[in-house]
């Protein structure tokens, strides 16, 4: 009956001009047109699983993944055999960092729909997310035997090859994807994002030609703008470079739901909640384990470099940007709020973190890294549920850091980074809250300035290891020789020795960065001169 409901709902949708218009709006990226139509339709027919799935797709497009997940679970409750909705659910789980759950859904799909290349592609990506790189690469290679004309699968294969350090093979995979689909913007951006590849004149012409086409999606368009920005910056042509970065950011910003005032409100709430009295009254709360090392701060501030240095130590394992702390914080709020947590509840949340991140641990090293930068907002919560965990604040000059973010298109998250003023406010809010914790928990957070690491690698590494209670090991200075997988935008940069390539790159485009300077305010002037 449930499968029949899905088929009947889809058949009705094909005959319904409103739903067809909403579907077209989704395809063309006109989300503001699609949303009211879908919501009005579902008020009239709340059991239309095809419309529920379309609304879930819309929510996922603007990164409201919890809303998307709830809608898809409702669709599957009504129609358990609705395979397209289950595939969408796996995607949404993967994008929330819940890749083990995504793999379970994909295993169910594989039984019902064996040989589906899209599901196999997603499973390979999810396997990579939980650190099963060999299995992921093997699955990609199997899929490509039968789906070798699918450009997006070649692209995903390239992503995985990049992660494990096979850069030449990654470039070859990306080029195969472009041979099949020359206007696929994400592939051009993936080549740009290697940071070490230089575009030639043929590449530049191909990207410009793709951008001139009228039939590309908004997603292809903003990826092409970011890639062209990188290409013109490589050629030391700042004006067209900035114009492309600006257009790419503006287009991406229209597709995201970000409010800088909400970030400010979250900072104000944390400052009010986490006081010396708060922690004094909660001595002994949380899980005792000292295993996690959190690296927090802004993206593009040198956190991947710090992770690479630490994971070169015999006692520290690098993992990835783990989604668990934000998820547990949301759970704590649903339990009545952080302030109301009992000692047992705080300990259980800490133990849940340790259990659920175990999937990322592939060795018997005693310590492991969680480098989700946005965890700076949850510094107090981390201290409450994992009081013996170490926290490192990776900080970089505000102009270098924010400009580097402005040039970067992130696959997921970091919605603040697509506007110069939003980004300046975000950086200032981050500095404000970390200053609060310096006063409330003196010495609990160890701050590392990127410029000091460049100037005195050994001295900064020795100080950091001392703060972590670890002995110095020379291997930490040879971090670039590590063959570990790196799953961030800096993956190729940290495979090179320490260098100053990223310092002062913003100065070439300074004439257009006024909104950033204004939003940063006093934070810019107060950045440590000694750094």
Provide an overview of this structure.
- By secondary structure, this protein is mostly helical.
- It contains 27 helices and five strands.
- It has helices spanning 2-15, 17-27, 31-44, 49-61, 65-78, 83-95, 99-112, 117-129, 133-146, 151-163, 167-180, 185-192, 201-212, 218-234, 238-254, 260-273, 276-280, 303-311, 324-334, 343-356, 379-385, 398-406, 420-440, 450-455, 457-468, 514-520, 522-525; strands at 292-297, 316-320, 367-370, 390-395, 445-449.
- A five-stranded parallel beta sheet has the order 2-3-1-4-5, with helices on both faces.
- It is globular, with a radius of gyration of 24 Å.
- 46% of the residues are buried.
């Amino acid at each position: 009956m449930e499968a029949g409901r899905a088929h009947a709902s889809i058949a009705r949708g094909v005959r319904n001009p409103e739903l067809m218009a909403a579907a077209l709006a989704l395809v063309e990226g006109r989300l503001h047109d699609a949303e009211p139509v879908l919501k009005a339709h579902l008020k009239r027919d709340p059991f239309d699983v095809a419309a529920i799935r379309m609304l879930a797709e819309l929510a996922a497009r603007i990164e409201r993944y919890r809303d998307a997940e709830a809608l898809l679970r409702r669709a599957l409750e009504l129609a358990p055999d609705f395979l397209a909705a289950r595939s969408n659910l796996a995607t949404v789980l993967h994008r929330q960092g819940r890749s083990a759950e995504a793999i379970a859904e994909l295993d169910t799909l594989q039984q019902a729909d064996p040989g589906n290349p899209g599901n196999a592609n997603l499973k390979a990506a999810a396997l990579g997310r939980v650190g099963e790189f060999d299995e992921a690469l093997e699955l990609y290679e199997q899929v490509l035997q039968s789906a070798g004309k699918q450009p997006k699968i070649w692209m995903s294969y390239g992503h995985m090859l990049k992660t494990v350090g096979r850069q030449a093979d990654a470039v070859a995979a990306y080029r195969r994807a472009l041979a099949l689909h020359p206007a696929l913007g994400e592939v051009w951006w993936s080549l740009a994002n290697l940071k070490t590849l230089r575009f030639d004149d043929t590449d530049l012409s191909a990207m410009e030609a793709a951008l001139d086409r009228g039939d590309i999606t908004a997603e292809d368009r903003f990826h092409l703008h970011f890639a062209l920005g990188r290409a013109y910056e490589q050629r030391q042509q700042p004006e067209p470079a900035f114009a492309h970065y600006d257009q790419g950011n503006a287009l991406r910003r229209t597709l995201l739901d970000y409010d800088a005032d909400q970030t400010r409100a979250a900072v104000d709430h944390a400052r009010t909640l986490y006081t010396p009295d708060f922690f004094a009254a909660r001595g002994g709360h949380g899980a005792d384990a000292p295993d996690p090392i959190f690296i927090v701060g802004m993206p593009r501030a040198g956190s991947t470099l710090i992770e690479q240095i630490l994971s070169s130590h015999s006692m520290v394992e690098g993992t990835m940007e783990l989604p668990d702390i934000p998820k547990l914080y949301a759970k704590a709020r649903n339990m009545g709020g952080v302030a109301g947590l009992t000692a047992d509840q705080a300990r259980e949340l800490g133990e849940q973190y340790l259990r659920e991140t175990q999937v990322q641990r592939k060795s018997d090293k005693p310590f492991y890294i969680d480098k989700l930068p946005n965890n700076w907002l949850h510094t107090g919560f981390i201290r409450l549920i994992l009081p013996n965990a170490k926290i490192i604040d990776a900080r970089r000059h505000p102009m270098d850091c924010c400009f580097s973010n402005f040039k970067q298109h992130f696959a997921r998250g970091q919605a603040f980074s697509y506007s110069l003023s939003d980004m300046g406010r975000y950086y200032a809010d981050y500095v404000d809250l970390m200053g609060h914790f310096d006063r409330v928990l003196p010495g609990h957070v160890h701050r590392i300035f990127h410029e000091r690491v460049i100037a005195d690698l050994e001295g900064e590494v020795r100080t950091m290891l001392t703060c972590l209670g670890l002995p110095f090991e020379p291997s930490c200075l040879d971090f670039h020789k590590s063959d570990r997988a790196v799953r961030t935008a800096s993956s190729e940069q940290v495979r090179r020795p320490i260098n100053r390539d990223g310092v002062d790159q913003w100065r070439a485009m300074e004439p257009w960065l006024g909104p950033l300077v204004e939003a940063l305010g006093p934070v810019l002037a107060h950045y440590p001169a000694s750094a």
